[in-house]
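Suppose a colleague, Dr. K., hands you the sequence of a protein chain of 517 amino acids and asks what its three-dimensional shape might be. Before reaching for any lab equipment, you can write down a predicted structure in token form. Begin with the sequence itself:
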Amino acid sequence: MELLEKILIFILFLCPLIFFHELGHFLFARLCGVRVEVFSIGFGPKLLKWTRGACEYTVSLIPLGGYVKMFGDDPTGKEQIAPEDRHMSFTHKSKLARFWIVFGGPLANFLMAYLIFVVLMLGGEKVPEIRLGVIPVNSDLYQSGFRTGDVLKEINGRKIFNPSDIASDEVKEIMVDRTGEGIVSFAHRSSGEEFINSFLKYTPLLRKPIVVDAHGKSFGISLVKDGAITKLSLDQLAEKFGSLDLYLMPDIHSSNTAKDAKFIPIRLNFKSRQQFFSQLNDRGYRSIDLMVKKVNSGSPADQAGIENRDVILALGEYKIFSFSQLRNRLQTMKQKDIALTVWRKGEEVILRLTPEEQLVNGKKVKLIGVYSSVEYVNLKLLNLPSRGLLGSIWGGAERTWSTVVKTIDGYRKLFTAEISFKNVGGPIAIGKVAADSFKTSLSYFFQIMAIISINLGLINLFPIPVLDGGHIMFIILEIINRGPLSRRKLEIAQQFGLSLLLILMLAALFNDVSSLF
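The predicted structure, expressed as tokens, is then:
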């Protein structure tokens, strides 16, 4: 049932993007006097079909694209057009007319995103708060005054609602909302770009208040102070040095039975984050992120016999208190054969493995092939006030342009290998993003739809034959050469473009499937 729900959300998310893109081509074709023969949403077997005028409208089974078939749209020139019909043939239209027909699809995607942003701003957006995750004590953000769990409110006196609201100007003064202290202001000197890169590195990574015992039972943690019980994340508690009275609460989503559902009082006295985790460990509790959620098939962990729900205790002679510490310690270990100690059904088990090296974002990283069971806090949603008609019209334009610029910069980093191609996702990744955003809020769902719409528009402008950008490239070459390319060159270009597109699609799909295992 859950899978069917995700598929329906995916279709609801993708179909408007495809419809608006093809509608852009369709409208410009009609405006330029080109006869449209087919307007299709989807590929494969036709589910719905009707004819109006000279155009056949269809809805097909596979909603992963669409197309507009225009009379005379044959770049190779094989199709013979009668002289009396050339006035409504795509190929026989002027270069400017063909440009606008081709560019109409991406343009419609940009306009769709703009309209979504305007409507959301006009009605008042519902967005996740900009909350910081775990900030290391030695980080620049911590030294300037930020703390784990801070919610960003203002920069230089300007209210901040989205990361896109952070300007590239110099950051001078920060205002945050801090748990237990309220609004806190402090100075922070950096460029806007440096601040965004630093800030986004730690958001939103607050872990749910859960630890796990030797038998795999999981518990939440609450702080007891002045007679009141406050639910905080494990990371927030680790920042509150001193003597603390805590309660361990059975996690209702774990396998604990009703008779186990009782609060367990526990007192900790610690002066550092390391002591906090060490004292939890001495009492038989580990952070949930050390429990293995999944083991990659064929990985060193799989070959060593690590199982789901094993709880990692030590790497060699080093005790491990968090998944990030496990990851960092792996990189510093020089020996090839490493002992890994785990809890399994209440007993300690020692396994031996050899980490494998992989290239991650251009760097060699040692991996063993396990995934953490850590879950993250659902960020609080903020209801933003309406920006008014004029404010929404201007704000929509600003956000559309900033999203275009940031997306292009992301492509640049991808092509220059600053970002690994493994970060590129296909339909499965898009479906997951759609489902997650839909669960967050309808407003957030449409925000993500607008961002993907801009991505779709830009991707279609890549100068690859068979894409809109490839057609525009041919029009430009036709202007330079003062005539169309030869039929043979066009056929080779089309075959090359189709092959390249298939390779890119398969690579993205491979990334999708790899993320599932």
